[in-house]
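Notes, p. 3: input format for complexes.
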Amino acid sequence: MSLSIVILAAGKGTRMKSAQAKVMHGLAGRPLLQHVIDTAKQLQPTQLVVVAGNGAVQVLPFLEGNQVDAVMQTEQLGTGHAVMQAKDAIAASEQVLVLYGDVPLTQVVTLEALIDCVAEGGVGILTTKLDDPTGYGRIVRDFDGRIRCITEQKDANPEILLIDEVNSGIMLLPSQWLLASLDMLGNNNAQGEYYLTDMIALAVADGLAIDTVCVDDETEVAGVNNRSQLAALERHHQLAQAEALMTAGVTFADPARVDVRGDVTIGNDSFVDVNVIFEGTVSVGSNVEIGANCILKNCEIGEGSVILPNSMIDSSVIGANANIGPFARLRPGTALADKAKIGNFVETKNANIGLGSKVNHLSYIGDTDMGAGVNIGAGTITCNYDGANKHRTVIGDNAFVGSDTQLVAPVTVGEGATIGAGTTLRKDAGDGQLTLTKSRQITVEGWVRPQKTK
Ligand code: UD1
Ligand code: CA
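Output follows (454 residues plus calcium ion):
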């Protein structure tokens, strides 16, 4: 059956105490709304629309960037009223799934289960049982367990308040029936709102089949109303991701002290020390060691490599058995071949570093093609920028560059060439030769160190 998805995201989020729209607050490095959209897209709906209202100045450009349609709910008159704004999207398919923009951790399999359990023309509700159901709409059933209605906390009598099965808000409804019945919603209730939940009593009256899927893990249906709940969901989500990686054979010094903000795969027998952050798409091979406080973003790390503490790797590809850090910064476009070594306080960018080459200390290597077996001395700088344009430095296999050398690009260091320490290389250095800038060392006779004036 064809499916439309409507994501409700017009609410105010007062308790966030924020100038930022609630659904734009981040969880695992992505806006809450992004999580819901990504989940929704996996269900391959024919229509996907977000109902925006509060914070629309932030939400609408975000949706445009993600090529997701939006409809405006300028006045927030309730969840039923919000759904009414999406009539066109609803009319486009046979069923409509309502999701909330501030409920980020619903699993695709759970939504698929909801879709699968619903009979043709029937209604499905995602529910959960809570020790403390306060604040939620209650699922009211008759003696045979059939659903009668959903009653909101503020409209409930003491008997109903005892019910521990609650409405997650996530619902599947038949489109034609919904469109025909939405206008029957009233707002004669404690909050003076048009409740989407009132559609359930209408569905019962019309004899529609109503099924529920009750999720065990309440975080799947947990909404974010304040920053404390946001932090709790973040931690839950992070721990779940660490668990999945541990199941795949990864050791964490502490699974509670790792952050995965994207899609990460790690091979077995790799070790991740505390406070490591993974961002974007990261793939790490087997037997890799990642030291404390490293940040790995959009990168590939080959098997057996060692990344020592406090290193940052961004948009780079690292071969096998490479050695990085501590305190190394690999910027976008760095490609390290197998067994290459980048030591402390070294920055690289747009640089190909060949097999087994070493840049061990205090260097900047940018816009460079470096061959294999090269040794770069401490403090070597590629001067890649002339103030207007960037130029490349080429360093041949087995070259040896002495400490404190400036390679003024464009420039080439030949294969097996040796550059003397302290050289400012402005012209190409030939293969196998020693090149250096010679400045005469002098000793100033009779020189006296300045003394501190009293
Ligand atoms: C709603 C449900 C309640 C359920 C709970 C689960 C109704 C009437 N009640 O209550 O049964 O247990 O969610 O969290 O549906 N929104 C709009 N426009 C509006 C009002 C709300 O877009 O006019 C959006 C909000 O941004 C939010 C969602 O709908 O994403 C839920 O709204 P909220 O006000 O939080 O509903 P609850 O009172 O919590
Ligand atoms: Ca809510």
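The chain has nine helices and 37 strands.
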